[in-house]
Design brief:
53 helices; INTS2; 0% strand; Integrator complex subunit 2; 58% helix
């Protein structure tokens, strides 16, 4: 039959393949067109309920002629199709199949009915008889297989459509599974096609297996494909696999395994396929193995695996049948697992140990699903039995050795430098794995080692992983391995737990970063991250361990590796995608250990430089030619190899920087050319650029454009090497003997000569013991920020350079707070760890409290603010230059041709005749534009500082500063509106209320504060109110010390009476100075903020204290000046102000009061709008 079917299907002579009898021939010659019309009419009459009953059909069919029988069968078929169409649109019906077509279900006439149906499919015109619709309808009758078989046998072209129709139809009648095998017997060469259709539709898996066993005979290949691709099909609800079918497959699988087990040359590929099938079937179906099957399984598991994938399948088989294997032979299972652990580059057993010990059961499911290439859940019963079994299975030494031996290749990594890689022996299979496989093995080994470190395996086995970790870091490439970060975290934690795990020596790290100017690599990034993580762990464990192992890496080492440059590399390399996973961790660690790097100004400038295009200087060369001289060398020699670009820049442009006063255009070109150099060259030449440029740029004749271009160059360097650059800049700005002159009063110590940049890269620095050295380092600066103010005083009158100074000052202040806080935490941790060994009385005496640290930092910040206020004060040369500028502006260009082109505004001009410092009037007058810009920069900095530290404004104003700065300060520092909150405290404060007091000599004979030549009220100059800055300990029992002024001759009187008198005089003068400052501050605040609140405050507090201050200050002119400011702020209070002053001054000083009243009246008459001024 199959051959005849193939003949007809391929174009042979179609014929009926039924047993031909004499009765069959008469159906071939009927007029089926007439029969079709009769059937249509009959069906129309039935709709109108006219015609014979269906119960008479069987009798009519038996006694009727051939034409009647054909008509009856066709009518029944049409009715059956209509019923099926109706059922498709209605809810499912239940009932007897015989009720639907009693004739078609009649087994007596089944043979003849089959013959008629076949003839109808061959003779009737479509669409009255559609074979696919007919097949679907015939499923409703009993035993439709014979009918459908006959139809398809005589219509070979409809074989595939019939199969698809049966598979796609619903299974209401549950007979498709019986029909399909009969159709496959009709054409057995189409069985593979039918099975593939079952697989594609994921239906009738049991039928597919039966077809495989009976017809296809490729059980192993078929089950391997099914389990690998779609194992869920085996448990499909539509025809699931039966135990009988699975038993047949299992018998074949174990027969094949036994053949391989007894073979002299076993086929590893075949074994892998059989193990996958066996593991999948046992795991999915929960099959129980017989003793014979378990023996074969253990025999296969004991065979030496030839490749890692074989280990995968063996481990999966152990997982799926763990309960049965352990029950059958625990000792053999133990021996098999130890054998699998020792397999080269096969971490499966090690990972299984980690998962079981960490209770990561879903991870075991993922491992099995990935190894078997199927979605599968490992039986939990077996896993629960494996957990205690694995606990005592392997010794720690064996686990550690296995983890460290994964993927150890002898080939060098592209990032290994200077012979730092660990020499690890190569396993037998490592030489044959590809680079991608090696990378995957490194990732797995990172995972395993990190978990073993967390669980203390390496500590218990006394196995140091330092060399191995360093080798893993050097072998790192992008994309970054996800397990590398957990490895570094586990390694740093393990170092703090035991001295058996040692950290990477600083010498090796410095060797790895032998040239910090070179381009970064992923390995250098990870090594930097390791150092940050190590320091973070050390800070967390302060005081917990006093041994030498828990040590931080020196801050100078992290500065040496250019931590800011590493951060930029992490953020920008490959668009930030390569290190996206570690960016948040990097930012957190760097911010916690180097908070000075996160300056808003620096970050904004960095963004500006990143998105702005490179500037091109369009100016032409100077017409004058330089005299050719001998070749020169940069100021700082470097051991690093210079590139061609840097050498060309040095030969072409370096000397232009020194001669920028004569040839500014060439200097500008030199700076722009430097900005276009490679990053490594810019780092190498940074010290030379800074040392060459800064001292000469302080010259009053420096071109402003040159200075701005230098600042852009400085900002560019600041984004990659800030710590070194800050130290270089401060060192370059120190005064030199050739241009040294007396600095401001706060520069009390002798100046040091600059010794070149790059000081922050020196090793083993001892800042407080080596301050006689020439080179400043960032470590020195953060420990004593006041060292910054030892720079050349011209910096404070050169706005461009002063902006750099303020930027460095802000970073140093942040770094200083962090440094002191870290030292405090370290001391507290050590104290807490030893508190039981120290007597309680000694503990109380030695404790340095949190309040002490806060006071120390506040004292340091307030000292810096006072120094900045002194810088903003007018000096005699400032006033003289401002007057000269006004005089110059009064002349025309004809009288002084070209004067406005040569006048420089960036700093004071050459030496002038100094005005007399006697009296106060000489320090009044206009100020230069330079000083205005200096004040703007300073006030912006103080505004941010006061916002960050809200206690600082109150502290500063309780200390006091020059009254002449009050108006400018309140106008420039917007955050000083907070002064309104404590003005009433300041007005009624006693001398003890001030945190720091003014020293003697700050008040003149008439009670007016006397200023030094620089306008300073701080310590350091004769006649100035001294701010006490003790050099020793500033704390007693936790309270800030109150410093007094220093007597001008530096000695204390020997007599007790003289000492008491001096102390009383100092206290009296300080009290008076602060009171007058408080009065001036109050009225200036009212003038700056003419609000209802300040007017009420003026009436309630200021007027009350004004009269008292006038009397206590011996009627100082400061009181009348303050009263005039208040009268201008609130004209409605003039009468009250005059009344208070009359009560205080009395008749004997009526003349001074009359002059005041006259000046107030004149002020009001000149500006009548003051009376109509409304409050804001």
């Amino acid at each position: 039959m199959s051959e005849a079917f193939r003949l007809i299907e391929t174009g042979g002579d179609p014929r009926i393949h039924l047993a031909l009898t004499g009765t069959v021939l008469r159906y071939l010659d009927l007029d089926y067109r007439l029969i079709q019309r009769q059937v249509k009419e009959e069906l129309q009459l039935e709709k109108q309920q006219i015609g014979s009953s269906r119960d008479l059909k069987a009798g009519l069919f038996e006694s009727g002629a051939a034409e009647d029988r054909a008509r009856i069968v066709l009518a029944d078929l049409m009715r059956l199709e209509q019923q099926e169409r109706d059922n498709a649109t209605l809810p499912k019906r239940t009932g007897s199949l015989a009720d639907r077509s009693s004739l078609l279900n009649n087994q007596v006439f089944r043979h003849e009915i089959t013959t008629i149906i076949v003839v109808l499919t061959l003779r009737c015109q479509r669409p009255m008889i559609d074979i696919q619709s007919l097949v679907q309808s015939l499923r409703a009758v009993r035993d439709p297989g014979t009918l459908i078989y006959a139809i398809v046998a005589n219509n070979p072209t409809d074989f595939s459509p019939t199969i698809d129709s049966l598979l796609d139809a619903d299974d209401r009648y549950n007979n498709v599974k019986e029909i399909l095998p009969r159709l496959c017997k009709l054409a057995d060469y189409r069985t593979w096609d039918v099975r593939q259709r079952l697989v594609d539709r994921k239906v009738f898996p049991n039928l597919a297996i039966e077809l495989t066993i009976e017809h296809c005979h490729d059980e192993i290949g078929f089950m391997n494909r099914i389990l690998k691709g779609q194992p869920e099909w085996l448990t499909n609800s539509r025809g699931p696999v039966t135990r009988t079918s699975m038993t047949s497959i299992m018998e074949f699988v174990f027969s094949s395994l036994n053949d391989e087990l007894t073979s002299d040359r076993p086929d590893n590929v075949a074994i892998n396929r059989l193990l996958r099938i066996l593991s999948g079937m046992v795991g999915l179906m929960g099959l129980s193995l017989t003793a014979e099957q378990l023996e074969i399984s253990l025999g296969v598991l004991e065979m030496s695996p030839a490749e890692p994938c074989t280990v995968n399948f063996k481990v999966c088989l152990i997982l799926m049948s763990a309960t049965q294997l352990l029950k059958y032979s625990e000792s053999r299972t133990r021996r098999i697992l130890r054998q699998l652990l020792d397999c080269a580059d096969s971490p499966q057993v090690l990972m299984l140990w980690i998962y079981l010990q960490s209770k990561l059961l879903p991870k075991i499911d993922e491992f099995a699903s990935r190894a078997l290439s199927m979605e599968i859940v490992v039986p939990r019963t077996g896993l629960m039995e494996l957990v205690p079994f694995f606990t005592t299975l392997f010794p720690d030494k064996e686990l550690a050795s296995c983890a460290l031996g994964l993927g150890r290749l002898t080939t060098s990594s592209p990032y290994k430098t200077n012979g730092l890689s660990a020499s690890t022996p190569t396993t037998s299979s490592s030489a044959y794995i590809s680079s991608s496989e090696a990378s995957e093995l490194r990732s797995v080994s990172n995972f395993c080692v990190s978990h073993l470190l967390d669980r203390g395996v390496f500590i218990r086995s006394s196995t140091d992983v330092r060399t191995w970790v360093l080798d893993q870091i050097q072998a790192t490439d992008v994309p970054l391995d996800d397990n590398m970060i957990p490895l570094l975290q586990a390694y740093t934690k393990a170092i703090s737990k035991s001295d058996r795990i040692t950290r990477i020596p600083e010498h090796d790290i410095r060797t790895f970063f032998a040239n910090p100017c070179q381009d970064l690599t992923p390995a250098k990034v990870l090594l930097t991250l390791y150092m940050l993580l190590n320091n973070e762990v050390c800070l967390e464990n302060l005081g917990l361990d006093s041994s030498n192992r828990n040590r931080e890496y020196d801050t100078t080492l992290l500065q040496y590796v250019q931590i800011r440059k590493v951060l930029l590399f992490v953020q920008e390399f490959q668009g930030g995608v390569a290190f996206k996973a570690v960016q948040p961790m990097f930012l957190k660690l760097i911010h916690s250990q180097f908070p000075e790097l996160f300056d808003v100004t620096t970050l904004l400038l960095e963004e500006e430089n990143r998105f702005s295009s490179s500037a091109v200087v369009q100016s032409s060369h100077s017409s004058q030619r330089r005299a050719s001289g001998s070749s020169f060398k940069p100021l700082f020699s470097t051991p690093h190899t210079t590139s061609i670009e840097s050498s060309a820049w040095v030969e072409t442009h370096y000397k232009s920087l020194e001669q920028h006063l004569l040839y500014p255009e060439d200097a500008i070109k030199a700076y722009y050319a430097f900005q276009r150099l490679p990053q490594a060259d810019r780092q190498m030449l940074a010290g030379s650029i800074v040392q060459m440029s800064l001292p000469s740029l302080l010259d009053p004749e420096s071109d402003p454009t040159v200075m701005e271009v230098f600042k852009k160059t400085w900002d560019q360097l600041n984004t990659i090497m800030p710590h070194d650059l800050w130290a270089m800049t401060v060192d370059a700005l120190l005064p030199r003997p050739s241009n040294f002159f007396i600095p401001l009063n706060f520069t009390t110590t002798s100046s040091s000569q600059g010794g070149g940049g790059g000081g922050s890269q020196q090793q083993n620095q001892q800042p407080f013991q080596q301050k006689n050295k020439d080179v400043y380092t960032f470590e020195w600066l953060v420990q004593d920020p006041l060292l910054l103010f030892k720079v050349d005083p011209r910096v404070f009158r050169t706005p461009t350079i002063f902006r750099l100074f303020i930027q460095i000052l802000g970073a140093v202040m942040v770094g200083s707070r962090h440094w002191f806080r870290k030292q405090f935490n370290a001391s507290q941790a050590v104290l807490n760890s030893h508190q039981n060994m120290v007597p309680i009385q000694t503990q109380k005496h030695r404790v340095f409290k949190e309040a002490n640290l806060t006071a120390l930092l506040s004292l340091q910040d307030s000292s810096i603010v006072q120094l900045l206020f002194e810088i903003c004060q007018r000096r005699p040369e400032d006033i003289e230059e401002a007057l000269a500028q006004e005089e110059t502006a009064n002349y025309s260009d004809d009288e002084f041709p070209g004067h406005h082109n040569t006048h420089r505004k960036n700093s004071t001009a050459g030496p002038r005749k100094q005005p007399s410092t006697h009296g106060k009037e000489h320090l009044q007058g206009p100020i230069t534009e330079v000083l205005k810009e200096i004040q703007i920069v300073t006030f912006n900095f103080l505004h941010q500082l006061f916002i960050e530290f809200k206690i600082l404004p109150k502290m500063i104003h309780f200390q006091g500063y020059s009254p002449e700065l009050l108006s400018a300060t309140l106008a420039g520092v917007l955050s000083l509106h907070v002064c309104m909150d404590f003005l009433h405290e300041l007005l009624f404060a006693t001398p003890a209320a001030a945190t720091l007091t003014m020293g003697p000599g700050g008040v003149g004979a008439n009670g007016t504060p006397v200023m030094s030549s620089t306008g300073s009220m701080l310590a350091g100059g004769p006649g100035a109110g001294g701010l006490a800055l003790p050099t020793g300990s500033i704390f007693g029992d936790g309270a800030p010390g109150v410093g007094g002024g220093v007597v001008s001759n530096g000695t204390m009187p020997s007599a007790a009476a003289a000492a008491a008198a001096a102390a009383a005089a100092a206290s009296s003068s300080t009290d008076l100075t602060l009171r007058l400052f408080a009065l001036r501050l109050s009225v200036v605040v009212c003038a700056q903020y003419p609000l209802e609140r300040t007017e009420e405050m003026a009436k309630s507090f200021i007027l009350e204290r004004m009269g008292a201050f006038a009397i206590s200050s011996n009627y100082s002119s400061e009181v009348l000046d303050s009263a005039k400011i208040l009268a201008r702020a609130f004209p409605s209070m003039i009468a009250d102000i005059v009344r208070v002053l009359q009560d205080a001054y009395g008749q004997e000083r009526q003349m001074e009061l009359d002059e005041f009243i006259e000046s107030v009246n004149q002020m009001v008459s000149e500006d009548p709008a003051l009376w109509n001024k409304s409050l804001l």
